[in-house]
Amino acid sequence: MTDPLVAALTAKLDAYLADLATLVSIDSGGRSKGGVDAVNAWLADRLKTLGFTVEYDRQAVVGDNLLAIRPGRGRKKILLVGHSDIIYPLGTVARRPIVMQGNKLLGPGTCDMKAGLLAGLYAIEALLAAGFEDFGAIYYLCVSDEETHPRYSLPFIQTVSRQVDVAFSLEAARENGDIVVARKGLRWYTVNATGRAAHAGVEPEKGRSAIVALARQVDALTRLNNPQTGVTVNVGNFNGGAEPNVVADQATIRLDLRAFTQAELAAAMASIGALFSQPLDDVHFEVIPEPTAACPPMEHTPAVAELERLTQQLAESLGFSVKGAMTGGVSDASYVAAAGVPILDGLGPVGGLDHSPDEYIELDSII
After folding, report:
1. Which CATH number does the domain housing residue 59 bear?
2. Are 62 and 4 in contact (CB under 8 A)?
3. How far from 332 is each of 30, 69, 200, CA to CA, in Å?
4. Does residue 179 share a domain with residue 192?
5. What range defines the domain where residue 291 resides?
6. In which element (H, E) is residue 307 found?
7. Where do the H-state alpha helices sit in 51-203?
8. pLDDT at 2
9. What is the DSSP string of 19-38?
10. Strand ranges across the sheet with 284-295
11. Lower CB density within 10 Å: C or N end of the chain?
12. Across the strands, what pairs with 343?
C-alpha cells in the first residue's frame, strides 16, 4: 500500500516542477545580492503560509540570510539548511533556461541546490497537512554565500545551530542516491621559501635554490597522504624564480589539506608545521594559513550513525534502500556539525554535474 505522505507528494509533483522552474529562473549567481534576496523572498512567502515566522540576517555585500521558524507541539528542534546562491556568473540563467531531457531536469542551480530547498519546503508542507506537529520547532535556514569567498554567513549558521537538536542539509544526494554522513575538514596553506640568488652559470655554488628546497619538501608532504584514514595533502600550485640563468631565491606553493576528523586534521597540521619549521640547505620557510579556506569536518559521530540508521530504516519501510557516504567535499553541514549538532547531508533529490553546463536532477528521485 502506498504511504499517504508519498501519495500526497506525488500528487504535487507538477506543482513542484513549476515552482522549481520559477526558482531557477531567478538569477542568483555571481554574488548577486538582488537575485539571492529574490529567491529568499519567494521562499519566505511560502513558509509564511505554513505558519513560519521569518527573520533576516541582513548583509551589505551579499544577499541576506533567511531564517524561518515554525513552532510545534513536541520537544526536539529540527534544522533544515541550504543556500540560495549559485556558482554561475550573472546572465547564465537567461542563456541556459531549465530544460527537461528524459528523466533529467537540467538548469543552473537545479542540483546545487534549488531542488533541495524546494524539496524541504514541500516535505514540511506535506507533514503539516498530515497533522504532524511532534517537534519543538522547525528551523529553515537559507544562507546567501555558500558559493563565494569570503563567507559572511558563518557566524549566523553557528548561532542558529546552537539552538537546535538535530539538522538536515538539503544539498543533493549523491549520484547513486547515497546520503552524506561525513565530510572532511579543510585547510589551505601558502608556503613561501626564501633562498639566495646567484648567477647560475658563473657562481651557482653561492646560491641557495628556493625551488629545489621547496620541491624536496613537496615530496615529503606527499607522504602525509593516508589512504586508510582518508587524510589527503595536495599541492595544487607551485611558483618560483624569475629567469633560467638565476638561482631562484623565492618560491611559493599552495596546498590543500583534508581529513575526516578534527584529531586527524590537527595531527596533519602539526606535521606540516614541523616540516617547515627548520631551514633546508639554508632555505627558510614561512607557512601562512589561508583564513577564507578553513572548514571543520562533519564527523561520523555515534549520534550521526544513529540518524543514519533511522533514515535507512525509514527508507526500507517505503520500499527502497539508502546508504551513507563519506566525502571529501565541504558544505555548510560542516559548520552545523561544529556546533555539536548531529546532521545528515544530501537529503535533496539525486543530481550531479554541479557547476557545469549539464547540471541536473533526476525526476524520479524527487518524491
Report:
1. 3.40.630.10
2. no
3. 19, 19, 50
4. no
5. 185-295
6. helix 302-317
7. 92-95, 115-129, 154-161
8. 65
9. HHHHHHHS---TT-HHHHHH
10. 232-240, 250-259, 185-194, 284-295
11. N
12. 167
The answer on 317 and 277 residing in a single domain is no
Distances (CA, A) of 129 to 5, 17, 43, 53, 187: 9, 20, 18, 18, 44
* Contact (CB, 8 A) for 322 and 157: no
Write out the three cell numbers for 16. 513542484
Q: Which residues contact 306 (CB under 8 A, 6 or more apart)?
A: 342
Report which residue type is found at 34.
G
- Which amino acid appears at position 202 of this protein? V
Please give the angle made by the CA atoms of 225, 325 and 312, to the nearest 5 degrees: 155
Grid cell, residue 344, equals 545528515
Contact criterion met (CB below 8 Å) for 59 and 152? yes
| pLDDT score, position 31 | 84
Q: In this predicted structure, what is the pLDDT of residue 5?
A: 85
Chain position carrying cell 579543510:
186
Q: In whole angstroms, what is the distance from residue 233 CA to residue 185 CA?
A: 12
314 with 243, same domain?
no
Cα 31 to Cα 17: distance, rounded to the nearest angstrom: 25
The C-alpha cell 646560491 sits at 207
**CA nearest neighbour of 210 among 236, 240, 235, 238:** 240
254: CATH: 3.30.70.360
* 361: amino acid identity, one letter: I
Per the document, the length of the chain is: 367
Tell me, yes or no, whether 68 and 179 share the same domain.
yes
Which residue, among 300, 329, 24, has the nearest Cα to 147 in the 3D structure?
Answer: 329
- Contact, 156 vs 279, CB < 8 A? no
Nearest to 112 by CA among 363, 328, 351, 309: 351
Q: Verify that 126 and 174 share a domain, yes or no.
A: yes
169 in the same domain as 69: yes
Residue written as cell 559572511? 152
Residue that is last in its domain, among 270, 295, 320: 295
HSE value, Cβ hemisphere, 13 Å, CA-based, for 252: 7
| Dist. CA 15–CA 126, nearest whole Å | 13
